[in-house]
Amino acid sequence: MLTSTYGTFPSQVIAELIEQGVVYASPGTISATQIQPASLDLTLGDEAWAMPGSVLPLTGERVRDLVGRYSRRAIDLSSPAILVRGEVYVIRLREAVRFSPKLTAYANSKSSIGRIDIQTRVLTDENPRYDRLPPGYQGELFLEVIPKSFDIRLRSGDSLNQIIFFERRSVLNGPELRALHGEKTLLYDAEGQVVDPDDPRLGWAESDGLLMTVDLDQPVVGWVAKKSFRPLDLGCINSYDPRDFFEPIVRPRDAALFLSREDFYILSTVEQVVVPPEYAVEMVPYDTSAGEFRAHYAGFFDPGFGWGETGKKQGTAAVLEVRPYEDDLLVRHQQPVCKMNYERLIDIPDHLYGMSGSHYASQRGPRLSKFFRENIE
Question: What is the pTM of this model?
């Protein structure tokens, strides 16, 4: 494993971490299919607990102490179980870690999970922060799961989130990002033209990341979740009629869309983004002053996203999972909604995103999760 270069770890280094026992499964083994270009899919164990609310451990506290003290009931996920919309659950993950003092990681939801409005956050012992593993951490991993829009059915072995490993994370600043865009092209407009690096919408002077704007100028601009008595089974791919769970949103006549507080929306960006093989991207909210909503649950883009086959750059629109929290919102076409932070890898992965097929590799517009059928009569 490379030790003299700092940055985010690619697939082959993640495989080495597994071989060395730095990341291991208890019980069982970690499958090669869990290793993505710059991330590792985590899987659910069979221990789960229904909680009265979200809670973080303090110094000296284990997550098991919290569930032992506060949980309402234990749930056995060795058989499929239903998690109820709006309830909070903690699930032990099969994977655990033995980090060196320099090694750390962060985690976030997978795209398919964010698009059905499930909030996931990793918990670790003695750490009052979500989704961030401290350097040198050794121990179990747990996942807080909150289905927001639908009841869900899951079982041990299902994968809801992913983890990204690094030593001294290296995120590009504004000048570095501009130089990379000039060299490799990171952003295309809706017509497939290269976005001018001096375009003020990109906010080079204000932000270290690429700014992305919402697209309200397409036949179907998005989807809004609706009430459903049907639970979504996370083991059923390409199975559900989307009309049972979502309503389509057609192009608004005045290029403005009203978002109701606490509703859940699937939208997409005007811009089409490219992630070159040497980089990965974390999508984060643009700015709290742009509106009090969580812009994106599943915020990680593996190397090769939008890169195209054999390096033929084409760009791919990003899908947004939007939920207004405090107030209703009026969102307008090309309003900035999120930021793309580029981080360096220590090496090019041995495989890129989309090379072995992906439901989202060629997505255009507000594409729903892989659990839904696309061809509906």
Answer: 0.92
Residue-by-residue pLDDT tens, the chain, 377 positions: 444 468 999 999 999 999 999 999 988 899 999 999 999 999 999 999 999 999 999 999 999 999 999 999 999 999 999 999 999 999 999 999 999 999 999 999 999 999 999 999 999 999 999 999 999 999 999 999 999 999 999 999 999 999 999 998 999 988 888 889 889 889 998 888 898 877 765 555 556 788 888 999 999 999 999 999 999 999 999 999 999 999 999 999 999 999 998 899 999 999 999 999 999 999 887 665 555 455 445 589 999 999 865 556 678 899 999 988 778 889 999 988 888 899 999 999 999 987 655 555 455 679 999 999 986 55
Q: Which of 121, 123, 165 is nearest to 7 (CA)?
A: 165
- At 62, the amino acid letter reads R
3-state secondary structure of 329: strand
CA end-to-end distance (rounded Å), the chain: 51
What gap in Å lies between CA 89 and CA 264, rounded to an integer?
A: 20
One-letter amino acid of 297: Y
CB 238 within 8 A of CB 199: no
- Residue at 177: amino acid letter: L
Beta carbons within 10 angstroms of residue 161's beta carbon: 28
CA angle 13, 108, 41 (to 5 degrees): 45
State how far the Cα of 353 lies from the Cα of 4, in Å rounded to an integer.
26
**CA atoms within 13 A of residue 40's CA, in its CB half-sphere:** 31
Instruction: Please return the burial class of 19, using the count of CB atoms within 10 Å of its CB with bins 0-12, 13-18 and 19+.
Output: exposed
Domains and CATH numbers, the chain: 7-167 (2.70.40.10), 174-344 (2.70.40.10)
> Cα separation of 185 and 197, whole Å?
9
Q: How far apart are CA 329 and CA 105, in angstroms?
A: 34
Q: Which amino acid is at 377?
A: E
